[in-house]
Amino acid sequence: MENNPEEKESITLPEVRLILIGGRWAGKSSSGNTILRRERFECGQTRTAQSEVRHEIVEGRKLIVVDAPGWKSSLSLTHIPEWNKQQFKLNLSRCPPGPQVFLLVIPIDSAFSVAQKRIVEEHMKLLGEGVWRYTMVLFTCGDYLGGKTIEQHIESEGDALKWLIERCKNRYHVINNKEKSNSSQVTLLLQKIDEIVSDNNGSYYEVDEQTLTIIEKKQREVAERAEKRRRRAEEQRQQMTTLIQGDLCRALGDVQLVVTEKRRSEKMESNLEEKESITLPEVRLILIGGRWAGKSSSGNTILRKERFECGRTRTAQSEVRHEIVEGRKLIVVDAPGWNSSLSLKDIPEGDKQRFKLNPSRCPPGPQVFLLVIPIDSAFSVAQKRIVEEHMKLLGERVWRYTMVLFTCGDYLGGKTIEQHIESEGDALKWLIERCKNSYHVINNKEKSNSSQVTLLLQKIDE
């Protein structure tokens, strides 16, 4: 199909509906812009958090392009949040009555491994076996080919990529998003899409209305439960504020017994307006959780400075940093993350002992443990067990001082954190309840957004 698409007579569609699918950072949004010949999708540092639909008139026909959020190419489907799976299925309804083609975006500049083959296969199964009839591989990073052909690349890559090409009935196309002015690459792509439609007798991928109805019903139920959880969390915060105000009132009353009733009342009102909760002059907190959960990055966001090293290397031993933030001293301990795939019995004894010593790194002791949980992956029953085992090392009382800190806040897209909690299942809900409904979301890609730290400190005060 790559060589001479013009040899085969095909239908010229007045309207083309296509969905861009694939892993994160594969080049889907950029490809959408190249296809539409306009900058309609946002590209760069921010990922596509929810499906976006754009349309343009290209070569005399209407193109409707759906840019679907990418999947994490290192995570099996079992580790993908339930909401994300549902949203992936709902992509089909974004271009009614249904897409004529799925462009499965694969970058040329990285190897297509056996693990990636499995993840692609798992995601395609969510759409049903019939989806392969309408799928074409769209290779991005065409400039990386250099002097070789795409066929040479396919043959040199191994069985995983060859399997994918065969699964798509040898349908593929190469695009170079750095040469958007090269209109011929889009013209050729549209010819190949015409051929796919012709091969499928003019049909499109039909959306299973029953499946969509079930998903939409589930999401409505989740939204209702999420709103109840949000209200409950707000009520708990208000109750705590009321208790603190009551304590303050009593304290002020004791101190000012010698003052006249009028002056005492005026003074109390003045103090209550200025201070509704305890503001700690020093906050001592410990970041705990699995490896690569975003603890070090969260520490930097909280301290509003790059004090912990982030990137390729993991935190090997506890590190303590402190800064003055909003007029008070913050002491942050970044503890080494545990292996989320290993039960406690498989953890070296030395690691267990070091984990127990973390509270001693901020004497006289931490006021809060921030249990870091990334939003971009599912919180499974196995992870629940591993969290529970590690918390037992610190003793039952540790839960009184623990708050869940959700990282990867940008992955929420259009949903609330409460919708994420309610859609994830019993394991995550158990964790939130264990922490007495105490949680906070942070987006470490928006370190300049100081309000997220201000709100976190308010919750710690409470």
Automatic annotation (TrEMBL):
<feature type="domain" description="AIG1-type G">
    <location>
        <begin position="13"/>
        <end position="214"/>
    </location>
</feature>
<feature type="coiled-coil region">
    <location>
        <begin position="216"/>
        <end position="243"/>
    </location>
</feature>
<comment type="similarity">
    <text>Belongs to the TRAFAC class TrmE-Era-EngA-EngB-Septin-like GTPase superfamily. AIG1/Toc34/Toc159-like paraseptin GTPase family. IAN subfamily.</text>
</comment>
<keyword id="KW-0342">GTP-binding</keyword>
<dbReference type="InterPro" id="IPR006703">
    <property type="entry name" value="G_AIG1"/>
</dbReference>
<dbReference type="InterPro" id="IPR027417">
    <property type="entry name" value="P-loop_NTPase"/>
</dbReference>
<dbReference type="Pfam" id="PF04548">
    <property type="entry name" value="AIG1"/>
</dbReference>
<dbReference type="InterPro" id="IPR045058">
    <property type="entry name" value="GIMA/IAN/Toc"/>
</dbReference>
<keyword id="KW-0175">Coiled coil</keyword>
<feature type="domain" description="AIG1-type G">
    <location>
        <begin position="280"/>
        <end position="462"/>
    </location>
</feature>
<dbReference type="GO" id="GO:0005525">
    <property type="term" value="F:GTP binding"/>
</dbReference>
<keyword id="KW-0547">Nucleotide-binding</keyword>
<protein>
    <submittedName>
        <fullName>GTPase IMAP family member 8-like</fullName>
    </submittedName>
</protein>
